[in-house]
Amino acid sequence: MQLGPTVEWLKTKLKEDHQDEVQFRNNALTSLKQSLDRNNKRLDEIYDDKLDGVIDQTTYFRKRQGFLSEREDIEKQIKSHGKADDIYKDFGCLVLDVAERAGKIYGVRKPEEKQYLANFVFSNLSLMDKNLQISFHLIFDAIKKYQKDKNELPG
After folding, report:
1. Does any domain span residue 37?
2. What is the pTM of this model?
3. Which domain covers residue 125, as residue numbers?
4. What pLDDT was estimated at residue 148?
5. Domain count, the chain
6. Cα distances (Å, whole numbers) of residue 153 to 26, 119, 127, 149
7. How many CB atoms sit inside 10 A of residue 47's CB?
8. What are the angstrom distances between the C-alpha of 8 and each of 1, 3, 26, 62?
9. What is the C-alpha separation between 122 and 135, in angstroms, rounded?
10. Where are the alpha helices (DSSP H) in the chain?
11. What is the pLDDT, as a whole number, of residue 83?
12. What's the alpha-carbon Rg for the chain, to the nearest Å?
C-alpha cells in the first residue's frame, strides 16, 4: 500500500491541529498568568491592609492562606499545559511513525510489542464467524478513510 500521499496529508493535518493546540494553550496561559498576577496583587494588598491595621492578624493569615492555595493551583495548571504540549507532540510523532512504518514495526517486534501496537491502532478486534472484525482508533480510521476516498477529517 502506498503511504506517501497519505503521510503528507497526515503531516498537514497534524500541523494544522498543532496550530489550533498552540492557540488554545496560549489563550489558556494568558488567562492563567492574568489570574496569577491578580492573585499576587491581592496578596500584596492584604499585606498592606495588615500593616495599616485595616485587617487583624487572623483575617490576614486566613486570606493569605486562601490566596497562596489559589496561586499553587494556578501554577500547577500552568505546568500541566507544558506537560500536555509535550504529550501532544509525542503522540503526533508516534501516530506519524506508526502510519509510515506499521508493517515494518510489526514484523520485527516481540508478541507483546505486537499486541501493544495493535491496541494503539485498533479500538476493537474481535472474531465473528471466523472473520476478524476491526475498528480503528479515530486518527487511524481517518487515515484509512482518506486513503479510500481522499476525504478530509470530519469536524
Report:
1. yes
2. 0.57
3. 4-149
4. 66
5. 1
6. 25, 22, 28, 11
7. 14
8. 15, 8, 27, 57
9. 6
10. 4-51, 57-108, 111-121, 138-149
11. 81
12. 25
